[in-house]
Structure formats: structure tokens, C-alpha cells
Amino acid sequence: MGTTDDFFTLVVLSKPGADRLKQILEFHGVDVHLNDFSHAATDDVVNAVEVRIPLKSLEIGLKILESGQLASAPVSLMKMTGMGNSLLIPVDFSPASLTAVKLGFLIARKLNVEPIVLHAFVAPVFPSEPFGEDPDNPALPPLEEEVQESQALYDIDARKLAKFKQQILKAQQDGSVTDIHFSTCILEGIPEQVIQEYCKQNKPILVVMATRGVHKKEADLVGSVTAEVIDSCRVPIFTVPENCSFEDLSRFKRILYFCTFSAADAFNLRGLMRISDFPAAQVSLLPVSDRPFDNVKSRLEDLANFFNQTYPTASFHAAALSKGKFEDSLRDFLSNNKIDLIIVPNKKSSAFTRFFRPTLAHRILFDKDIPLLVLPV
């Protein structure tokens, strides 16, 4: 350790910011001293801390500061693009729903937005009156019965939602779920359509949804709510498998990012690095391209070098799948590299297209038990 004279003040921050910077700097082998800030020119008590490092560590210190790691979540940037200040978590009251709540609340706290826990219930469908029905002897139930049946179902699910809310509050008290203010909402309709309409009207920053295990997904290949939401909503979707365990966002350290070689790559990774607490993240860059890897290798390596210089707290490298069937090659890559999170772009597609030619995100969703962040393009 160097002497006090070897150190200089890199920056003055609030105590939480100084602690965060100290953690990042020390990960990179930089010796850090934190001193309470004082200035003779003022008698006011200032709750600030000097971050002091050796002069020899100036270069890495400046790179970390300029990378934006300490900046607040880019909520203002998201609002400029028309997004709101909420995060949506659709639930069906299953144990998996609590997993989605746990992750959603962690991200909402980081983004400084309000999580909304949404449940959709399906009202009974009464057949239309058949042609030629005798109006004096109706065979269908009266309108009042339809209303009563719908209200009864609403009341049942409203009680379930209230019980689920109490479950969340209890989990917040024991510390297993992030303590953040949240709201609940219950709406009538087919779940995927309700979620899609909610996103159109309210534009949440993110939708967090739980998924079933691969062995259960096989029964849901057609009509999966999560798959429908991924392919229809124009907001980012974060899916988390029901068997996924984590305590904080640092759990996602090994990331696979599918590149499009567009400006979206820089925008998406900038947001990812600024909202996540994983300074030791290892990011594999894989091209979304039908062209041979050798044709895009140099561009991918240039992109990796750019991100390594921009975000020195993480490690970026070009990646390639082995030859063979895509699903098998990807499965081997995920296993060999112990990937914690997959990030993939996704274009909106029709139900007909999804059935005969499912998107990359759609294929990964049904074949992998790994958290998936889907970004609309």
C-alpha cells in the first residue's frame, strides 16, 4: 500500500456513490482511500466523501468515471423515447409469479420506477343467439346473468390478488423481496391481449414475466402467454424461469448478447451497464446473421474492442457457435460458457409467421431455462 502522499483526490461523491466507486476500483486492483470531505471556505456540514487513489491508477480511474457506471439509471432517456415511469409484472398467483416479482422489484428499485403487479382474468363467453331463435322462448341466459357471472369471477380473482399482495408484503418484511412501493391491478380479458393493451397505453419501461421449465413449456408451444407478449409488445421483456434463484442483479455475470451491428447495440449495452451491478460481467457478442462467421468476425472484434474501452469494468469478446443445428450449437455454447442471461433483439411478427417461422427470441424461450431479455427492434 502506498503512503498518503502517493494518493490524490479523483472525485468527491456522496457516501453511497463513493462506496460504489470504491468497490469497482478495488475489483480492478486499485487501492482506494475514502476521506470525509471538508473545505475551509464554508462552515456548512457537507455529507460528501473524497475518493483518493494512487497517481499511477489515474488512467483506469478516469476510464471508470467516464464509462457512466456511477450515473443514475437512464430513466430520463427512456422518458424521452416515450416510455413511462413504471415496470409491469403480470402474475397468475403461481410460485413462479413470486420469482418474477422478486426480479421485477430489484430492477424497479435500480431504475427508480414503480412496479405494477397485474393480473388478467377471463370473463365467461356466452354464445350469440342462433339464427331463427324464437324471441318468445329464449334459450340463452339473460344479460343480468352474464354480468353476475363476470362479477363473480372478478371478485374471486380480486381476493386472490389481495392475498398475493399480502404474500409480497410479508416477503418484503422478511427481506426476501426488495422493499419498494408497488401497486396492483386487475383487468378483464385474455392475458396476452391485456398485457399488450396495457403496454400500448402506459408504456412501461420493462415487462418482467415468469416462465415455466422447459419440460412444461413443451405443452405450451402454441398459445404461450409469454411468447405472445414477446412477439407483440414493443417494450423490453425480461423473462425469468420459475426455477431461477438469485439474491441481486449481480447474479447475471455471464451474458450472451446477440448483435445486430446497428446503433441499437451501443444504446442497449449502455443501458445494460448503467442499470446493472455486475462490474465483473463477461459479455459474449454473437452476431444475428446468416453470413459465415469469418465474414463478420472483424466487425464483431471491433465492436468488442470498442465496448472494452468504453466499459472497462466488464469484459467483452467476439463469440461464434459451432457448426451444426442452431439449437444444438446454442445449447452447447450456453452450457460450456455457463451463461446467466441471454439478450436478444426481436421484431414484431404475425401469428401466422410465428407459427411457421418463429423468431430467435421465440425459439430460445421454449428451448432454454435461462433468463432472457428481449429488446424490440
Q: From the alpha carbons, calculate the radius of gyration and give it in angstroms.
A: 25 Å
Largest sheet: 10 strands, mixed
Mean pLDDT: 78
Largest beta sheet: what is the strand line-up? 6-5-4-7-8-13-12-9-10-11
Low-confidence stretches: 71-82, 213-223
Would you list the SSEs in sequence order as H and E? EHEEHHEHEHEHEHHEEHEHEHEHHE
Would you report the number of β strands? 13
The residue fraction in helices comes out at: 40-55%
The computed structural class is alpha/beta
- Mass-distribution shape: globular
* Tally of helical segments: 13
- Termini gap: 49 Å
**Strand residue percentage:** 15-25%
Summarize the structure.
The chain has about 375 residues and is α/β, with parallel strands linked by helices. Helix content is about 40%, strand content about 20%.
Describe this protein with a few key phrases.
13 strands, 377 residues, 13 helices, three-stranded antiparallel beta sheet, single chain, alpha/beta, ten-stranded mixed beta sheet
Can you describe what's shown?
With 377 residues, the chain is of the alpha/beta class. It has 13 helices and 13 strands. It has helices at 15-27, 58-66, 75-80, 95-111, 143-173, 191-202, 214-217, 225-232, 263-275, 293-310, 326-336, 351-356, 360-367; strands spanning 7-13, 33-36, 49-54, 86-90, 114-121, 183-188, 206-211, 237-241, 254-259, 282-287, 315-318, 341-346, 372-376. The strands form 2 sheets. A 10-stranded mixed β-sheet has the order 6-5-4-7-8-13-12-9-10-11, with helices on both faces. It has a 3-stranded antiparallel β-sheet with strand order 1-3-2. Strand 4 (86-90), helix 4 (95-111) and strand 5 (114-121) form a beta-alpha-beta unit. Helix 6 (191-202) packs parallel to helix 8 (225-232). The longest helix has 31 residues, at 143-173.
